[in-house]
Design goal:
Number of helices: 7
CATH architecture: 3-Layer(aba) Sandwich
Number of strands: 7
Number of domains: 1
Helix content: 25-40%
């Protein structure tokens, strides 16, 4: 059973409380010109997708939780896709950009998900990944919540960078807050 089906009601307020929704930062790194098609992998409730939507041509929210996607459906202009991140049901090189926010630490198939992201991302397409790095005293409560309730496994920013470089996706890691980081790069 997908645990996100049970926390849909609390998810957005929780993310806002911990300051983990940063749509302005994502939009800045996407640097859209308005013509892009964007895939939001494990986009959940669609909150971030909705913020990005007014800056691009199209946003597709992909998520494995039907309950999260029901909440995403309330936003006008978002396309909804129920699927798993390790088996994305789109053709090769479909999207100009892919964003994957607050996701990787929840996945058991990270490598497969990154390979699928590469596959559906166009050559020279933009990839934005935001994930947790819960270290220090500020990160401890988040680490406990994630480990106890979701059995999360955190990927270190340097390890992510190496995985992406092996996939020919090159970019940089940015520290975006006390407990999270952002990868911004392009598929070569």
């Amino acid at each position: 059973m997908n645990p996100f089906n049970f926390i849909t009601f609390f998810y957005d307020p929780f993310m806002k409380f911990f300051g983990l929704f940063k749509p302005d930062t994502i939009i800045k790194h996407l640097n859209p010109d308005g013509s892009e098609s964007v895939l939001d992998v494990a986009g959940g409730t669609g909150f971030l997708s909705n913020k990005v939507r007014s800056h691009v041509r199209k946003v597709v929210v992909l998520d494995a939780s039907r309950q999260m996607l029901k909440k995403a459906e309330k936003y006008d202009g978002l396309e909804i896709c129920h699927a798993f991140s390790e088996d994305i049901p789109f053709d090769d090189e479909t999207f100009d950009a892919v964003m994957c926010c607050d996701t990787l630490h929840h996945l058991t198939m990270v490598d497969e998900t990154l390979s699928e992201i590469k596959r559906v991302l166009k050559t020279n397409g933009k990839l934005i990944i935001v994930d947790l790095k819960p270290t220090g005293l500020k990160g401890l409560p988040m680490w406990i919540i994630e480990k106890v309730f979701f059995r999360s496994s955190f990927i270190k920013p340097d390890s992510l960078l190496l995985k992406l470089e092996k996939l020919n996706i090159h970019g940089k890691i940015f520290q975006t807050g006390a407990i999270e980081f952002l990868f911004s790069g392009r598929k070569k």
